[in-house]
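Comment on this:
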Amino acid sequence: MSRPPYSAHEILVGPARGRPELWRLPVGVVLIVGLSFFLGGLMNAALQVVAPGLAASLEQDGAVGGTPAALLILLGGFIVLTVATAAAVRLLHRRSLGSVLGPQRALIRDFLATAKGLALLLVVLWVLVPYDTGAPLEPNLAPGPWLMLLPLSLIAVLIQTSAEEIVFRGYLQQQLAARFSSPFVWMLVPSALFAVGHYLPVEAGDNAVYIVVWAGLFGVLMADLTARAGNLGPAIAVHFANNVSSLLIVSLPDMLDGLSLYTIDVDIATRDALVTIMPIDFVTMILMWLVARIAIRA
């Protein structure tokens, strides 16, 4: 007899049942947001004192993350979100951050297994599969500096993606699942909030809604992986691989392109982007999810 597909989710939800009162969740969200802003402000103030020139260059000509230093600081700054979440789960739920991530050995095992499969997938997609996005790749960072920065870049992307997974597929999903057994609640509510955070009407125009749909579906698929694995390892690995591809390999110009090897000059607000890049992004996301499912044997 096969086990229910989400039976491993109990590994994460069990600790959340210790203090499951519903009022604690919105208070926790407010605490996470407030503490993140506070810690982020402290980091910015420290940067102004230690390196005022660098602080002034973090946003130039409206482009955020347009230099290697600026993007490293931006991505690395997500550590405050992880710290704030750790504080919230400790103060409000008497839980450790480790209980949100899942058992350490399983977390590392599933992360590495998923990452290996995704690395192979990305090589196939970038090297072997011919497709036309309607615009040529333009060199961005020279290969030498890109390789020298790569270890720091990977760490920064891991910090950023882990922080988002800890909040959405960790804290929010687990505390909702502690009160509501239906996946429609603990999958869809965090995914909807995640999607709203990706609403970019200024940058994407009418296409912003499609980015929201993409992010919402991504959230649902990551929730599925987390519930099947009983840890955040696979979701972090998929999120990490996706952002490595879009931030370190090929990015859009003037949009978090400070660490990318190439850029592709496509305006995401146009119909061309809708019929070229977005279908590729949706297909790639589904393939990543399938690879992760295979990697964790779920």
